[in-house]
């Protein structure tokens, strides 16, 4: 039975990938799931941006309506939960206390009929319990006692942790929801910049319909990585930041509430003519408690009906809704860069688990582009045209509309001498000289404040997505 299910999911994923070449080219209708599929209305918001060259891009926030029958089916089925607790060297002091508080919140939300298993993870991932009944308080207490006795040592190996947790969940029944809840900072060296490994991990979770949820705790939270995995698997990301009494417990309760509600796994999607998504081969699952983000290119007016076929905890769904395309807005000037990056890997690394994280990703892209543009200006001042051009190209990949990066790129290509300013060329040796030229590596920190937003209403505000935590998201490392 399990192999048949995996084969069916893999076949559907292949169908989506092969359909990608045509299903966005004309007004198309997805062939819905079997006749007893539950029909659900989609709500959506489609914001756009048109570049100076005339190319148009879109960001669509899509969410199933809160249908009573849908909520019952998604939330009433039993759940199998694996909780992975990061025990690396960073999880000490107040962070360790926050972990315990968050786990207390998670455990308090488990229901009769749910099952749970605990793991501790640093360099290796080891079980703290077997798969136990969620009402077995003595077994849960023993697992947490083992966690308390474990010393925080070594580095985080998130890839191994996900592999081990997935193996524990892979046998879950079709009628159950399956979720992995990770509690830690996600600072995983083996996944840093390794898109191939990340793709294997997330595709395996998707094939087994396992949602990845994360509670980010620690001094160096890799929010971008955790949000990307959550986005790919229909999970949620919560942040513990201020170590205030009760906050971590509340975040844990929020995390288990999301984990107990199955996402909707998309098997087929059809956009109206004029819209093509950069995520055609890796469509993010839908959730009822937050929106899901699709980005891509737009031609023509692009309006029309969106149709989606999906499944969740053993039942099929047919979802549809009208897409109304909004006029171009300058607040979405980040879309060209984001779409260009997503097209390279099918959206694998998009940290856009809802519009809250889309806003954060846009802010980080702008910061990165601005930092690189300033580094390019320094390189020009030092006469390093080749270095300035390389840095400007990197900045323009993040934000093709960044004016400073455009100027650096143009000047670096011109065959003329770029003069130093009037600063003392020995200024770097004398810090008291205010006119000193900054060295090439003197780039602003990643947590530098973002530039002021353009005037006018924030077009993201109408999404009304729930905030991921009681505290505002921090810049992504």
Structure write-up:
- With 477 residues, the chain is an alpha/beta fold.
- Helix content is 35%, strand content 21%.
- It has 12 helices and 15 strands.
- Strands 1, 2, 10, 11, 12, 13, 14 and 15 form an 8-stranded mixed β-sheet that branches. Strands 3, 4, 5, 6, 7, 8 and 9 form a 7-stranded mixed β-sheet that branches.
- A hairpin with a 2-residue loop joins strand 13 (304-312) and strand 14 (315-323).
- The protein starts with a helix and ends in a 64-residue tail after the last helix.
Low-confidence stretches: 1-34, 417-477
Helix content: 25-40%
The general outline is: globular
How many distinct helices?
A: 12
Mean pLDDT: 80
What Rg, in angstroms, do the CA atoms define? 24 Å
Series of secondary-structure elements, N-terminal to C-terminal: HEEHEHEEEHHEHEHEHEEEEEEHHHH
Terminal-residue CA separation: 42 Å
Main sheet properties: 8 strands, mixed
Class from secondary-structure proportions: alpha/beta
- Strand count: 15
Beta-strand fraction estimate: 15-25%
Quick structural overview:
The protein has 477 residues and is α/β, with parallel strands linked by helices. It has helices spanning 2-19, 68-76, 94-108, 137-149, 158-169, 195-207, 223-233, 247-259, 335-345, 355-381, 385-398, 403-413; strands at residues 38-50, 56-64, 79-86, 115-121, 125-127, 132-133, 177-184, 210-216, 237-239, 265-270, 275-277, 292-298, 304-312, 315-323, 325-328. It is built from twelve helices and 15 strands.
């Amino acid at each position: 039975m399990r192999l048949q299910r995996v084969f069916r999911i893999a076949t559907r994923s292949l169908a989506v990938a092969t359909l990608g070449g045509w299903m966005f080219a004309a007004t198309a209708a997805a062939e819905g799931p079997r006749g007893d599929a539950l029909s659900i209305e989609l709500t959506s918001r489609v914001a756009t941006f048109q570049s100076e060259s005339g190319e148009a891009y879109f960001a669509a926030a899509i969410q199933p309506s809160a249908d009573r029958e849908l909520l019952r089916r998604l939330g009433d089925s039993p759940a199998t939960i694996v909780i992975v607790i990061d025990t690396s060297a960073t999880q000490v002091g107040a962070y360790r206390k926050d972990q315990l508080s968050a786990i207390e919140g998670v455990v308090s939300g488990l229901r009769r009929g749910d099952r749970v298993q605990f793991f501790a993870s640093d360099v290796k991932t080891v079980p703290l319990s077997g798969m136990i009944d969620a009402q077995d308080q003595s077994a849960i207490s023993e697992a947490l006692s083992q966690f308390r006795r474990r010393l925080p040592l070594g580095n985080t190996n998130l890839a191994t942790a996900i592999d081990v947790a997935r193996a524990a969940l892979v046998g879950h029944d079709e009628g159950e929801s399956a979720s992995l809840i990770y509690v830690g900072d996600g600072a995983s060296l083996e996944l840093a910049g390794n898109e191939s490994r990340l793709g294997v991990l997330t595709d395996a979770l998707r094939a087994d319909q396992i949602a990845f949820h994360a509670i980010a705790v620690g001094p160096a939270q890799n929010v971008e990585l955790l949000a990307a995995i959550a986005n790919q698997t229909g999970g949620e990301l919560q942040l513990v930041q201020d170590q205030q009494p009760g906050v971590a417990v509340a975040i844990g309760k929020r995390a288990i509430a999301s984990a107990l509600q199955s996402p909707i796994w998309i098997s087929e999607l059809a956009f109206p003519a004029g819209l093509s998504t950069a995520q055609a081969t890796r469509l993010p699952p839908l959730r009822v408690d937050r929106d899901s983000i699709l980005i891509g290119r737009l031609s023509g007016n692009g309006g029309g009906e969106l149709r989606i076929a999906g499944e969740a905890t053993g039942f099929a769904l047919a979802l549809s809704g009208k897409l109304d395309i909004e006029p171009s807005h300058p607040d979405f000037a980040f879309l060209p860069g984001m779409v260009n990056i997503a097209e390279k890997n099918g959206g694998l690394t998009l940290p856009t688990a809802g519009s809250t994280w889309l806003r954060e990703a846009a802010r980080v892209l702008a910061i990165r582009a601005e930092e690189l543009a300033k580094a390019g200006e320094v390189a020009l001042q030092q006469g390093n045209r080749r270095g300035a051009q390389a840095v400007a190209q990197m900045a323009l990949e993040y934000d093709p509309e960044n004016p400073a990066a455009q100027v650096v790129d143009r000047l670096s290509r011109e065959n003329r001498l770029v003069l130093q300013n009037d600063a003392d060329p020995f200024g770097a040796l004398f810090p008291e000289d205010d006119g000193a030229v900054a060295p090439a590596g003197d780039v602003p920190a990643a947590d530098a404040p973002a530039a002021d937003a353009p005037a006018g209403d924030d077009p993201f505000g109408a999404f009304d997505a729930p905030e991921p935590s009681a505290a505002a998201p921090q810049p992504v490392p």
